[in-house]
Amino acid sequence: MTKLSKTTIFVRRALLRLPPRLRPILQAAAGAVAAWYLAKLLVAEQRPVFASIAAVIALGATYGQRRERAVELTGGVVVGVALADLVARQIGGGPAQIGVLVALTMATAVILGGGPLLVTEAAVSAILLTSLDPASGYLWLTRPVEALAGVGVALAISSLAFPPDPALQVGRAASSVFAGLGRTLEDVSAALAAGDRRLAEAALRSAREIDGAVRALEDALEVGRETAHQAPLRRTTGVELDRYRRMARQLDFAVRNTRVLARHALRCLRSRGSAPPELAAAIGDLGLAVWTLAAQLDEPERRVELRLLAARAVRGASTASDSDRDLALAEVVGQVRSTATDLVRASEAAEAGVDRPLEPSTEELLAALPDPWAGAPGRVTSLAASELPAP
Question: What class has domain 166-387?
Answer without folding.
Answer: mainly alpha
